[in-house]
Structure formats: structure tokens, C-alpha cells
Amino acid sequence: MAAVIHSLWERGDKSPLILPSTIPVDDPRVQFELTRYLSENWVPVIGKDVDGPNSLPVRLDAEVPNLGKYHACRRVARTIYLGSAPIQRAAHQGVEDRRVRLGCVAPGESPQIFGDALRRLAGEATYLYQDGVRYWYALQPNVTSLAEERAEQLKGEPEKVAREVERRVREEVRRSGDFSRVHAFPQSPQDVPDDLDARLVVLGLDRPYARGEDSPALQEAKRILESRGTAPRTYRNTLVFLAPDRTRVQDLDEAVRRYLAWESVLRDRETLDLTPHQVRQAEQQKDASDDTVKARLPETFCWLLVPVQQDPKEGLTWPDIRLQGNEGLAERASKRLLRDEWLVTTLAGTRLRMELDRIPLWRGDHVEVRQLVEDFARYVYLPRLRDPSVLVDAVEDGVALPTWEQESFAYADGYDEATGRYQGLRVAQSIALSAEAPQGMVVKPEVASRQLQKEGVLPGPGPTPPDGENTDREHQGDGPKPMPPKPVLRRFYGTVALDPVRAGADAGRVQQEVVAHLAGLPGAQVRVTLEIEAEVPFPHEVPEQVVRVVSENCRTLKFTNHRFEEE
What's the pLDDT score for residue 27? Predict the structure, then answer.
């Protein structure tokens, strides 16, 4: 039997092995002799990619317990080998994946287990080829082995891997989220400018972070925060840091090396004399490796290090936040900082007043807007603002409040020390400041109120008198018109029209935006009444069924007044 198989296999140009009808292919002896012959001629293939103590399938089964439970990789490799080796010269090479799973699975087993094993083998086997859904073994190594060799060689060239990671991260952080800028992989603290806007600093792979220890990432972050080169850093409340996870750096390094290896194989396709099928396989593997790198980047750069100081008398702390999600690196970081209020993009005038009094930030009876911009960028115990425009908007908001005396402040263009008078003093009105070069100063409300009362100036623009009325009344009489007493507001009344189609949603918004604020006032008694008016135009009329249903529902809902009327 072995001689017959040998003569059939060795004939001609090694065409597909077709046994004569006189040979019983179902006979176990035939199958045994065929397997023995193939084994003797395919020793390198079998020992590396099919079976044996040091073969790839055995290693994969040992690494993945779910596969090792069924010896899935070995069963898949044997099935492909026995199904493809005798017909390696056929016009349509290989065995379809569905037939591979059919040849492996036993009753009670899941075909998905063997599909996973097939994918793992296709990605790492040296002699296993793939074309679409067909798989086969051949005596010549495939491009996978070449790529694996090149990936292994890249271990001795870590600078290439680092350059590729840096290129990808720089491209990724072009979408900076709510940060004004992102500094990726600074070589020294001097590479991070000392500016007034909030920025994200991405540390390199050589500065990984591990929770619970003074890791290289934390040391580098402290060094950058404290100094810029040889000079101390002034604006420390503008920086947060993104560091790679120490346990994930190796996985990212492996994925990048594999991607670079496949890229080099495609670049050298003519030198390597690759077949069209091998080129397609290399392109598929390069795309798969690229997707793997993209997925591992956010998994690796996941630690957000934030300098925090709760009180001026307390020391600096470094909370670490593990980021999750599929957004970009900077977008994901800024989103988390906004949620925890460690990055502020909008600041109300009332909140600015609280910070002015809490620290305090007043320089006497006033403080320059430019000085406030520097204070918020300098001191870590203040809110971290996205850029100076946030502070400028807060000043504009606070000056425009009608309740400026209790909740915010006044604004002045300047201060005359000789006369002790604020020039261009404005309250309860809109102002426009420049975020690039903010001018003027914020004035304490009690100081501004004393000057306004002394000068007899009414706050705000005041109402426009009707036609024909004398507009020079303030100049009549013996002296300036006194400021009217501040009105005391104790009642509120309002009506609103709701869309009949979405009345429920509109009523819910009214409750949240208006009623909830009024009901929260101390001792407030809030009454909400819903008034409904419906009119059916001629010649239509309200059907009896609608009259009955609506009337019954009104009684059930305890309407105080309801009825249908004739025209």
C-alpha cells in the first residue's frame, strides 16, 4: 500500500493525489499509510505548525485554556493538514473554513471554539496559507514567518518603535478636546511652555505609571510642573499629564513591531518576489496589525495625573484617574476633567466672586483683571481654567448682574490714587473685554456702591423716558437725585403656552427650569395651575364619545372646573 501511494505521489509534477477506484480509501490501512507518507515528507511543516511537543498549535493550546480544553488548535491544524497537503498543486487550493470546523467539532462542542483556533493559527503559523475562506499547508514558508522574523529583529531597534508610537500619538492628539494645546513626549521640562492656557502633557513610553509607587511618570510630571529648564515654572495651574500604563507598554510594543514588520514586507514586495496572493495576505495582516495598534493606544495611555491643592495651606496631591472609553486621547482626558470639575470652560460671575472672597484674591478694594488671569493660572488651589477668555467672560457676567451688590462686583477702567476715585465705574450693565489683553479692574461692590451714592449716579443705563418728557430732570432741584431704594421682590406670576402634541415634555421642562427654583426658596408657597382651552371650528363638533371620556377623566383627575360649551 505504501508503494502504491508513493508512486502516485511522486509521479509527474506532483499533481493532486487521486487514488484509483481499486484502492479502498475508507480502509483504515490506506488512511494510515497515506498519513505516514505525508508525515515523512512534511517533517518541517508538521513539527512547527501541525503537531509535536514544540509546535505552534501545542503552544497556543497551552496559552489559551479555553482552546486547550478541547485541543482545538491541534485538531484544526491536523484537519487542514490532512485535507490540504495531498492537493497542494490543485487549481483551487485549501479547505474552506466551514469544512475545517466540520472536520473538528464533535457532538456537544461549539464550532466557535475551532473558529477562534483557526484565526490564531492563521495569524502565526509559518507554513499555513490563507486565501479568503480557504486554508492550506505548503512546504514553503509564508510571509507570516518573514514578518515574525522582522518583528523579532525590531526588538534590537526600540527607537523605531518609539518613533512610530510618537507619530501615532501626535496624530491622535490633533483633536485636543477642551485643551487649548497638547504637548506630546517632551524631552525635558523646557519643551513645555509656561503659558496661561490649560494644556495636556503626554509622557513617553519610557515614563510609565504604576499606581501605588513613585513611578517614572509621576517623577517626570512633578519635574515639569515645578520648573521649566533652569527657572521655576510660574503658571502651574495649567498642566495635567497623561501617562502610559506600565503593564500595557509591552503589549503596545509588540503590536507596533508587528505592524512595522508587515509594512516592511509590503515595502520590499518586489525584492522578496511575493506572489499576488502573498501580497494580499500581507496587506490583510498589515491592516489587522494597524487596527490592533489603534485599539492598544488608548489602553496603554490611560493614566491621567492631575495636580490638586484643596487649600492654600495644604500640600499638593496627585490623584490618578484611569481613563476608559473609545474617544481620542485628549478628548477622553478633557471629558473626564470636566466631569470632575478639574477643568473649567465656563465660569459664572457669582462663582468668581466666591473665589475672590474665599482666598481672598482682592488687592485692597479692587484687583486688576489681568492679575486675576495670572492668579488662576498660577495657583493650583484655584479652578483650572481652559484659557484667559473664561475669566474674562466671568467678569463680564458678574458686572451685568442686577444683583451685583450681593452676588458679584463692579468694574472700573482705572483708579486715581490722588482722588481715591474709580474711573469708568460700571455696574449692572454689559461690558466687553478683550481676552488677549484684558484691561480694567474688578471692584468690591460696597466700595463701588459708596462712590455711586456719593456721586449720585444711578447704576445701569436706566429706563428711556417717554416722548415729550423732560430728560434733564436729574439737573433740576438743589442737588443730585438720590438713589431709589432697592425693590423687594416677593411674588412671581407667569403663564406659558404648551404645544398640545408634546405638552407633557414641555410641562416637565417648566417644572425643572422654573417651578423647581421657586419651590426651593425658604418658606415659598408655589401653586401651579394648568388651564386648557379647546375650540373645534365649524362645521365640526365634539363627538359624544370624546365628551364622555374627557369629562370622566377630568372628574378622576379632580379638575376644579371643567365643562363643554355651545357656540
Answer: 66
Give the Cα-Cα-Cα angle 44, 45, 50 (nearest 5 degrees).
125
Contact 80, 119 (CB under 8 A): no
CA distances from 372 to 125, 196, 350, 368, 369 (A): 64, 11, 15, 6, 5
Distance of CA 464 to CAs 285, 461, 470, 485, Å?
75, 9, 11, 19
Question: How many whole angstroms separate alpha carbon 360 and alpha carbon 379?
Answer: 12
Determine which of 183-187, 199-203, 395-399, 484-488 has the lowest per-residue pLDDT on average. 484-488
pTM of the predicted model as reported, rounded to 2 decimal places: 0.65
Q: How confident is the model at residue 41 (pLDDT cuts 50, 70, 90)?
A: low
Residues 6+ away with beta carbon under 8 Å from 290: 259
Ordered by start, the domain boundaries in the chain are 2-139, 155-339
| pLDDT at res. 424 | 93
Q: Which residues does 407 contact at the CB level (< 8 Å), separation at least 6? A: 349, 350, 353, 398, 401
Sequence-ordered list of residues with C-beta below 8 angstroms from that of 508, at least 6 positions apart, any chain: none
- Mind listing the pLDDT tens digit for each residue in 265-299? 999 988 888 888 788 888 988 999 999 999 999 99
Beta carbons of 448 and 395 less than 8 angstroms apart: no
Lowest mean pLDDT among 126-135, 185-194, 406-415: 126-135
Looking at the DSSP bridge assignments, the partners of residue 505 are none
Averaged pLDDT, 361-379: 95
Grid coordinates of 340: 470632575
The Cα 435–Cα 388 span in angstroms is 6
Q: Helices 329-339 and 158-172 meet at what angle, rounded to 10?
A: 60
Angle CA(100)–CA(102)–CA(107) in degrees, nearest 5?
140
Q: Are 101 and 112 in contact (CB under 8 A)?
A: no
